[in-house]
Design a protein that fits this description.
This protein has 75 residues and is mostly helical. Helices cover 60% and strands 0% of the residues.
Length: 75
C-alpha cells in the first residue's frame, strides 16, 4: 500500500527537472575601462568576455537540448 501511495504521489507531483547549472545564470560584465589604458587592450578584454558569454550560452543550449531529448518535446 505504501508503494502504491508513493507511486501515486510521484505521478501527481509531475516532472522533477534537474537543476540548471549555476554558471548558466551568470551575467558577463563588460571589460573595465581605465583612463590611460590602450584601447586595444580594452577591446581584447571585451572580446574575451564575449567569448565567455557565448560559451555559457552554448552550454545552456546543450543543457536544454539534452533535457528535451530525454523528456521529449511538446507540439
Amino acid at each position: 500500500m505504501n508503494r502504491a501511495a508513493s507511486a501515486k504521489g510521484q505521478a501527481s507531483a509531475g516532472l522533477l527537472l534537474p537543476p540548471l547549472p549555476d554558471d548558466l545564470r551568470r551575467q558577463e560584465a563588460h571589460a573595465a575601462v581605465t583612463e590611460g589604458q590602450p584601447l586595444i587592450s580594452i577591446l581584447a578584454r571585451e572580446r574575451q568576455a564575449l567569448d565567455r558569454a557565448n560559451a555559457r550560452q552554448r552550454r545552456t543550449v546543450t543543457f536544454f537540448d539534452d533535457l528535451s531529448s530525454k523528456l521529449g518535446t511538446r507540439p
